[in-house]
Design a protein that fits this description.
The complex is a heterotrimer. Chain A is built from five helices and five strands, in the order E-E-H-E-E-E-H-H-H-H. Chain A is α+β, with helices and mostly antiparallel strands. Chain A folds into two domains: about 80 residues, Beta-grasp domain (Ubiquitin-like (UB roll)); about 70 residues, DNA polymerase, domain 1, CATH 1.10.150. In chain A, strands 2-1-5-3-4 form a five-stranded mixed beta sheet, with helices on both faces. Helices cover about 30% and strands about 25% of the residues of chain B. Chain B contains 20 helices and 28 strands. Chain B is globular. By secondary structure, chain C is of the alpha+beta class. Chain C has three domains: about 50 residues, 2-Layer Sandwich (Uridine Diphospho-n-acetylenolpyruvylglucosamine Reductase, domain 2); about 120 residues, Uridine Diphospho-n-acetylenolpyruvylglucosamine Reductase, domain 3; about 100 residues, 2-Layer Sandwich (Enolase-like, domain 1), CATH 3.30.390.50. In chain C, about 35% of the residues lie in helices and about 25% in strands. In chain C, strand 9 and strand 10 form a beta hairpin. In chain C, helix 6 runs antiparallel to helix 9. Chain C is globular. Classes of the chains: A alpha+beta, B alpha+beta, C alpha+beta. Chains in contact: A-B, A-C, B-C. Chains A and C meet through strand 4 and helix 3 of A and helix 2 and helix 7 of C.
C-alpha cells in the first residue's frame, strides 16, 4: 500500500507492506536511523518519536496508521546547527553514555517539558518511566532534563 | 606536561552525533543487496532433533536459503572455542547451529535467509522441526544431584570443572579455634545483561579479495577476528575484518563470539551477498550470555576480639549449556581471588564446581565474579557484625587492612599494591550523617517505619594482568593493550587504540590525555577504535581495563612521538636534545623560551624531511604495547538507606551514598557517570532483576514484561564523592571505574534491606529482595501480623 | 518484532467497520494498538484482517458533558482523559486511574475503549469503569445497545462486546464524592499486580454510598461487594477501612504468576483497598 508521512518537514511517500511498523518505515524507508529499536514489548522507549506532536513508541504504531501524519524524529530536533535545549542538556550534564536510548529520551523529554515546563525531580522520573537507560542510572538524565527545563524557561543556568 | 584537560569534567566529544541521531550502530548500516536472516530456535530446553523439514520455508517467496547445522559442519565450520582453560575442564563442542540436540531454550536449529526481515521471519515459522523432548535442569545445585538430566554425555554429573583456591587445612583449623562462626546459604541470582542495543551482525564477503567484513556489536573486535577466523571458520586472520562501530552498551555481553556471527559470515560467502541479523529483544533474553547464578554456602570465623580469622566458601556456579569465551574464569579467578576484600583475613578457602545446566550460557557480566564475591563477603561481614552486636561500620574498620600494610599479600593469590580504606569509609559516614541516621532509624521503628542502612566497603581487582600471570592461570589470551599515535603533516593527531568504547567516553577521555601531552587542543585529537583494519591488535574493553591498561599504552606511544619530535626540534634549533624541553606544545631550549619550535612545525618537518636529521626516519608516529605489572585495586564505601513497607513488602531506596577511589580521575564527569550506572545495575540485582527458570528450564522472565530493569522512578539521585589513592604501577596512576559501582551496590542494598527487617527477627533474606519475598518473610516471622 | 501478514482496512464509518467485521471472520479491530500490536509483533496474535479505527477518530474521540454523565468516545486517549478538566472534576476516579496506565507514550496512543474492550485482567481502566458505574454503548448492524459495567466484564479477556459489535461510547455518571485508585505495579510490565478503585460519599461522619472494584487479582475486574457492604452507612475510621478491606477477595481465587502468588496478591488487594478507602474518605 502507498503511505505518505511527513517526517521532519519532508514528505516521504513509499509503497510498503501493510504490516510495516512505523519505526521500520522511519529507519528503512526514510533512512532516518536515529530512531532505535530496543525491545518488542513497547516498554523501552528507544523508538519514541512525536506523531502529530504526541510522543509515541513508533514500534507500536503501524506505518499505515500513520499515513498522512507528521512525525518528528531526533534528526528533526535541532534547528540547523543550533541544538535544541534538551540536546544541550543531555550533552552538558552527561545524560548519555552509549547513546542508544538517547533519541527516545530526548523525544519523550520534549513532550514532558511541553506539558510541564517546571517539573520536580519526581515528576521527571515519573514522566520518563516509559524509557529505559542501562548506562546512566538516570541520575544525569534527571539533571539534563532540569538543565533543559531551566533553559527553556529562559532562566540563567547555575553552574554545579 | 601541562594538565589542561586531564582531571577536568569535559563534555564528551562523541555526544553531538548521539544527540542528533547521527550515531552509527550496526543495525544502522545497510549494504547493497543486503539479505536478512531469521533464526529457528528450539522452544525446548532439552530435546533431540528428530527431523527438520525445510521444504515449505524454502518454497516461500523471497526466501534465499535455509541453513542447517550439518551443512556448516560439512563445510568445515568448527565449534566456538573457550578462551580460558582450567585443569580438567570439560569443553563439549558448541556449534553455531546445533546438529543433534537443543541444550537450552533458544538454541539455533536452522537459519532462514530471505530478501527482507519480515519474510525471513515468516519463513522461519514454516520450518518444521520434530523434537524428542527430554527432562531438563536449570538449577546448578539440582544439576549436581544424582539422576539429574545430563547436559553433555562427556561431562558426567554435569560437572565442567572443580576448582579451589586457598589453604583448606589452615582454614578448617581457623574455624575449629574460632570464638564465633556464622554460616549463610546464598543464591546469587541470575541476571540478563540487556544492553539497550540488541546484538546485531552484518557480514559482507568480497569474492574478489576473498575477504570477509563483519560489522558486529563487539566490545573487542580483534578478539572476534582471532577466534572466528582461526578457530571457527578456519580462514586466514587477515581475511576477516571486524568493525564494531557505535555499540549501544555491552556490560560484558558483547565480549563473546556468538552463533549468529558465524552464521551471517557463512551465509554471506555462500550467497555472495551481505547478510544481516538483528536480535529481537526476545532473542537477547534467550541468547545473550547471562551473568551470576551461584548457589553458595559461606562461613565466616572471628576470634574473641572480633578479628576475622577465616572464610570458607563452597559454590556451585551455573555455567549454562555451553562454555563461552571467558566463562570458566568468571566464577574462579575473578571470584575466589577477591574473597579477602578489604579485610585482613588470614585464612580463606574457596571451592567452586562449574555446572552445566539446560540454560543460556553464563559468562562475564558487569563485574564478572567480583560482584558475586563482594555480595557474599559484604553480606556475611554485616551478618557477623549483627551476630556480634557490633556496628557494621565499626566491625569493618576494625578488620580493614591498614594503610601501612601495603603491599598486602592475600591468602587468595592477589597482592594488593595500594589502598587506604578508612578515609573512604569516614567520608561516606560523614556524608550519610551516620549517627543521626541511626537515631532516625531507631525513632522510625517506634512508629512502625522500617528503615535500613547497608554497607559495602568493597574492593575490586581490575585491569587484568600481567599477561604471563593470566596465561599461567589458563587464559588463552594476552591482557596487554596497544596504541598507535599518528601525527599528520598538519599537526592533527590520530590515536588508534585497542580499547573499544561502547559508552565509556574514550573519544573524550583518551583525547584529554593526548592533548595535554602533545600540547594540542582536544579538537586536534581523534580517537579511532573499533575496526581491525585500522587499529593495531588490541584486546578490547571489559574488566575495567581501558583506564588502567588502554591509556597506559597511549601514554607510552605519545612519549615516543614526543621523543622523536625532540630529535627533530634539536636539529631545527641547532641545540642538543637534552637541552630542550617540551612545554605546552613547544620544544624550547631550557631557560630560553624564545628559542622554540612548535609541535605543529615539527609535524610538518617530519613529513617534509627537507631540513631533517640525517640519521632519523621521516614521519611522526609511534606504537606501543603496554603489559601491566599488576591488577589495579579500586575500593570504596557505599551506603544504602532503604525503607521497607511491611504491608506490601516494597522497598524504596531513600538515599545512596558512594565514595569510590579509582585513583586520579581523567574526566570526573565520565567517572561519575560510570559510578551512577554501576550503582543502578547492582541495586537492581538486589531488588528487581532475576532470570527465573521453571522446572523444565523454560525462561519465565523472557521479556521486559517479566524481567524488571530499573526505571527512572525506581531509583533516587545518588550522593557520590571520592578519595584518591593512585595505582603505583601505571603511568597515570589510574584505576578502573567501569564496574566498581555494580560490584559494590548489590551488597549495600541487600544489607540495608536485611537491616530494615531486623525488628521482625529476620536474619537473612536472599536476592532478589522482591516485595512478595519480603512480605512473606515478615508473615512467617510475625505470624500474629498475618491476619492484619 | 515483525507482525505476520494481514489485510488492512481503514473504514470511514462505524457501520463500515461492522460490515468489515461481519465479512471477515478472522479480523481484529485496532484502535491505539497498544494491546494488540505487541501481541502481533510476538506473533501471538495473527489476524487475517486488521480493521484500523484511525479514520473514526474524529467521530469517536470526544469528552462531552451530558448533564448527569460524561460521554466519552471509545477512541479517546488516556491522555485526553487524564488532562480533561471535566473528567478530573466530575469523574476523578477515571482521570486518576487512566493516569496510572503504562507511561506517557502509551497514554498518548492507548484508548479507553480499546483497553476495556480488551479486558486485560491486569488493566487499570476496568477498575474505574466498575467503581464509577459506567455504561457502555455498543453498536452492531442491528443498532445500539447499552451495557452496565457490572455486566460488561465477563472474565479473562472477555467482555459483553460480541462478534460484529463495536464499543462506541463510555458513559460515566458524574460523581462528586471522594475517590481513589490504588495500584501496585508489576515491577517489569507496569501492569497492576493489584489495583483497587473506591468511590464513596460522606454522610456526616458516616460513609454514605460506596463502590469498590478490584483489578489484577482475578480473571477479570470485579466489584468487591463484601467491602462495600462492610462500609455502607458505617461511621468512618481507619479501623473500619481495614476490617472492610479484609473482604476484598471474598469468593475470589486470586491469580498466581511467577512474580506474585495468590496469597500475596490477596494481601495486596486488601492493603490497597484499605489505602483507597482512606484516601477516598479524605478527599470526599
Amino acid at each position: 500500500m502507498k503511505v505518505s508521512i511527513k517526517v521532519n518537514g519532508q514528505n516521504y511517500t513509499r509503497d510498503i507492506e501493510e504490516r510495516t511498523l512505523l519505526v521500520h518505515f522511519l529507519r528503512e524507508q526514510a533512512g532516518l536511523t536515529g530512531t532505535h529499536i530496543g525491545c518488542e514489548t513497547s516498554l523501552c522507549g528507544a523508538c519514541t518519536v512525536l506523531l502529530n506532536g504526541n510522543a509515541v513508541k513508533s514500534c507500536t504504531v503501524l506505518a499505515a496508521s500513520a499515513d498522512g501524519t507528521e512525525v518528528t524524529t531526533v534528526e528533526g530536533l535541532a534547528k540547523g546547527n543550533e541544538l535544541h535545549p534538551i540536546q544541550e542538556g543531555f550533552w552538558e550534564k552527561h545524560g548519555l553514555q552509549c547513546g542508544f536510548c538517547t533519541p527516545g529520551f530526548l523525544m519523550a523529554t520534549v513532550q514532558l517539558l511541553e506539558r510541564n515546563p517546571n517539573p520536580t525531580e519526581d515528576e521527571i522520573r515519573h514522566g520518563l518511566e516509559g524509557n529505559y537507560c542501562r548506562c546512566t542510572g538516570y541520575h544525569n538524565i534527571v539533571k539534563a532534563v532540569q538543565f533543559a527545563a531551566a533553559k527553556m524557561r529562559g532562566e540563567a543556568i547555575a553552574a554545579d | 606536561m601541562g594538565e589542561k584537560f586531564f582531571g577536568k569534567p569535559i563534555k564528551r566529544k562523541e555526544d553531538p552525533r548521539f544527540i542528533t541521531g547521527a550515531g552509527n550502530y550496526v543495525d544502522d548500516i545497510t549494504l547493497q543487496r543486503q539479505s536478512y536472516v531469521a533464526m529457528v530456535r528450539s522452544p525446548h530446553a532439552h530435546a533431540t532433533i528428530k527431523s527438520i523439514n525445510v521444504d515449505k520455508a524454502k518454497a516461500h517467496p523471497g526466501v534465499i536459503d535455509v541453513i542447517l547445522g550439518q551443512e556448516m559442519l560439512d563445510a568445515g565450520i568448527g565449534s566456538i572455542p573457550v578462551g580460558w582453560l582450567l585443569d580438567g575442564l570439560k569443553t563439549p563442542p558448541h556449534y553455531a547451529i546445533t546438529v543433534d540436540k537443543a541444550r537450552h531454550q533458544g538454541e539455533i536449529v536452522a537459519a532462514v535467509i530471505a530478501e527482507d526481515s519480515y519474510t525471513a521471519e515468516d519463513a522461519a515459522d514454516l520450518v518444521e522441526v520434530v523434537y524428542d523432548v527430554h527432562s531438563a535442569v536449570a538449577n546448578p545445585a539440582k544439576a549436581l544431584e544424582g539422576g539429574a538430566p545430563q547436559v553433555h554425555s562427556d561431562a558426567p554429573g554435569n560437572v565442567t570443572f572443580n576448582w579451589q583456591i586457598g589453604d583448606k587445612a589452615a582454614t578448617d583449623a581457623a574455624f575449629a579455634s574460632a570464638a564465633k562462626t556464622v554460616k549463610l546459604d546464598l543464591r546469587n541470582n541470575r541476571l540478563i545483561p540487556n544492553a539497550i542495543e540488541p546484538r546485531a551482525s552484518l557480514a559482507d564477503y568480497n569474492r574478489g579479495t576473498q575477504e570477509y567484513t563483519l560489522y558486529t556489536t563487539s566490545q573487542n573486535p580483534h578478539v572476534h577476528r582471532l577466534i572466528i577466523a582461526a578457530f571457527v571458520m578456519g580462514i586466514p586472520e587477515n581475511k576477516l575484518r571486524v568493525i564494531s562501530p557505535d555499540v549501544g552498551g555491552g556490560f560484558g555481553s558483547k565480549i563473546f563470539q556468538y552463533p549468529e556471527e558465524i552464521i551471517v559470515l557463512y551465509a554471506s560467502k555462500k550467497h555472495k551477498r551481505p547478510v544481516k541479523w538483528n536480535a529481537k529483544r526476545s532473542e537477547s533474553f534467550l541468547t545473550d550470555s547471562h551473568g551470576r547464578d551461584h548457589v553458595t554456602t559461606a562461613e565466616l570465623a572471628v576470634d574473641a576480639n572480633a578479628n576475622i580469622t577465616g572464610l570458607r566458601v563452597k559454590t556451585a556456579a551455573n555455567m549454562g549449556a555451553y562454555l563461552t569465551l571467558f566463562a570458566p574464569a568468571v566464577p574462579t579467578y575473578l571470584y575466589g581471588t577477591l574473597l579477602a576484600g578489604t579485610y585482613r583475613t588470614p585464612n580463606i578457602h574457596c571451592e567452586v564446581t562449574g555446572v552445566f545446566t539446560h540454560t543460556t550460557p553464563v559468562d562475564a557480566y558487569r563485574g564478572a565474579g567480583r560482584p558475586e564475591a563482594t555480595y557474599l563477603l559484604e553480606r556475611i561481614v554485616s551478618y557477623m557484625a549483627q551476630e556480634l552486636k557490633m556496628d557494621p561500620a565499626e566491625f569493618r574498620k576494625k578488620n580493614f587492612i591498614g594503610p601501612d600494610q601495603f603491599p598486602y599479600q592475600t591468602p587468595v593469590a592477589l597482592a594488593y599494591d595500594s589502598g587506604n580504606y578508612v578515609p573512604a569509609l569516614e567520608k561516606a559516614l560523614a556524608m550519610a550523617n551516620y549517627t543521626k541516621l541511626r537515631a532516625d532509624q531507631a525513632e522510625g521503628r517506634k512508629n512502625g517505619r522500617y528503615i535500613g542502612i547497608g554497607f559495602s566497603t568493597y574492593l575490586e581487582a581490575c585491569g587484568l594482568a600481567p599477561s604471563a600471570v593470566v596465561g599461567s592461570l589458563g587464559a588463552q589470551a594476552g591482557q596487554w593493550e596497544s596504541s598507535l599515535v599518528r601525527v599528520a603533516p598538519t599537526g592533527k593527531v590520530e590515536v588508534f587504540t585497542g580499547s573499544h568504547s561502547h559508552g565509556q567516553g574514550h573519544e573524550t577521555a583518551f583525547a584529554q590525555i593526548v592533548a595535554d601531552r602533545l600540547g594540542v587542543t582536544m579538537e586536534d585529537v581523534e580517537i579511532v577504535h573499533g575496526d581491525t583494519a585500522k587499529m593495531p591488535y588490541g584486546w578490547g574493553t571489559y574488566g575495567s581495563r581501558s583506564g588502567p591498561v588502554g591509556t597506559s599504552a597511549i601514554v607510552k606511544a605519545v612519549e615516543k612521538v614526543v621523543n622523536k619530535g625532540q630529535k627533530i626540534a634539536a636539529h631545527l634549533l641547532e641545540a642538543r636534545e637534552e637541552d630542550l624541553e617540551f612545554l605546552e606544545g613547544k620544544y624550547q631550549v631550557k631557560g630560553s623560551p624564545d628559542k622554540a619550535v612548535s609541535f605543529g612545525d615539527i609535524a610538518l618537518q617530519a613529513h617534509l624531511a627537507h631540513n631533517y636529521p640525517a640519521d632519523l626516519e621521516p614521519g611522526l608516529e609511534a606504537s606501543a604495547f603496554y603489559d601491566p605489572a599488576n591488577f589495579v585495586y579500586p575500593f570504596g564505601t557505599h551506603i544504602a538507606v532503604v525503607e521497607v513497607f511491611p504491608d506490601t513488602g516494597k522497598v524504596e531506596i531513600l538515599r545512596y551514598i558512594a565514595v569510590d577511589d579509582c585513583g586520579p580521575q581523567i574526566n570526573p564527569l565520565i567517572v561519575q557517570g560510570q559510578v551512577h550506572g554501576g550503582i543502578a545495575q547492582g541495586a537492581a540485582q538486589a531488588l528487581f532483576e532475576n532470570a527465573l527458570y521453571d522446572d523444565n528450564a523454560q525462561l519465565l522472565s523472557s521479556s521486559f514484561m517479566e524481567y524488571a530493569l530499573p526505571r527512572a522512578d525506581s531509583l533516587p539521585s545518588f550522593e557520590i564523592d571520592h578519595t584518591i589513592t593512585p595505582s603505583p604501577h601505571n603511568p597515570l596512576g589510574v584505576k578502573g571505574i567501569g564496574e566498581a559501582g555494580c560490584i559494590a551496590s548489590t551488597a549495600a542494598v541487600a544489607n540495608a534491606v536485611n537491616d530494615a527487617l531486623e525488628p521482625f527477627g529476620i536474619r537473612h533474606l536472599d536476592m532478589p529482595l522482591s516485595p512478595p519475598r519480603i512480605w512473606k518473610a515478615i508473615q512467617d516471622a510475625v505470624p500474629a501480623q498475618a491476619a492484619d | 518484532m515483525y507482525p505476520a501478514k494481514f489485510t488492512y482496512h481503514a473504514p470511514w464509518s462505524v457501520e463500515e467497520a461492522i460490515t468489515l467485521m461481519n465479512e471477515n471472520e478472522d479480523s481484529k479491530l485496532i484502535a491505539g494498538g497498544h494491546s494488540l500490536l505487541p501481541t502481533m509483533k510476538m506473533r501471538l496474535a495473527t489476524p487475517a484482517h486488521l480493521i484500523d479505527m484511525k479514520n473514526l477518530r474524529s467521530l469517536l474521540s470526544y469528552i462531552h458533558d451530558k448533564g448527569d454523565h460524561i460521554a466519552i468516545g471509545s477512541l479517546t486517549t488516556y491522555h485526553q482523559i487524564e488532562s480533561s478538566s471535566l473528567v478530573k472534576q466530575a469523574a476523578a476516579i477515571l482521570a486518576q486511574t487512566v493516569s496510572e496506565v503504562g507511561d506517557m507514550q502509551v497514554r498518548n496512543m492507548g484508548t479507553l475503549g480499546g483497553s476495556i474492550a480488551h479486558a486485560d485482567p491486569a488493566g487499570d481502566p476496568p477498575a474505574a469503569i466498575l467503581a464509577s458505574n459506567a455504561t457502555m454503548v455498543i453498536q452492531s448492524s442491528g443498532g445500539e445497545r447499552t451495557v452496565a459495567a457490572s455486566d460488561f466484564f465477563q472474565g479473562f479477556f472477555e467482555t459483553a462486546v460480541g462478534a460484529g459489535e463495536i464499543l462506541k461510547e463510555i458513559r460515566v455518571p458524574k460523581f462528586s464524592g471522594g475517590s481513589s485508585y490504588q495500584k501496585f505495579k508489576h515491577p517489569a510490565s507496569g501492569y497492576a499486580v493489584a489495583g483497587v478503585a473506591v468511590c464513596l460519599t460522606k454522610n456526616g461522619g458516616n460513609i454514605g454510598g460506596v463502590s469498590v472494584s478490584v483489578t489484577g487479582v482475578s480473571d477479570g475486574a470485579y466489584r468487591a461487594n463484601g467491602v462495600e457492604a462492610a462500609l455502607t452507612g458505617q461511621a468512618f475510621s481507619e479501623a473500619l477501612a481495614a476490617s472492610a478491606a479484609a473482604h476484598a477477595i471474598d469468593g475470589i481465587d486470586a491469580l498466581e504468576d511467577p512474580f506474585a502468588d495468590a496469597a500475596y496478591r490477596g494481601q495486596l488487594a486488601k492493603t490497597l483497598a484499605k489505602r483507597a478507602i482512606i484516601a477516598a474518605w479524605n478527599n470526599a
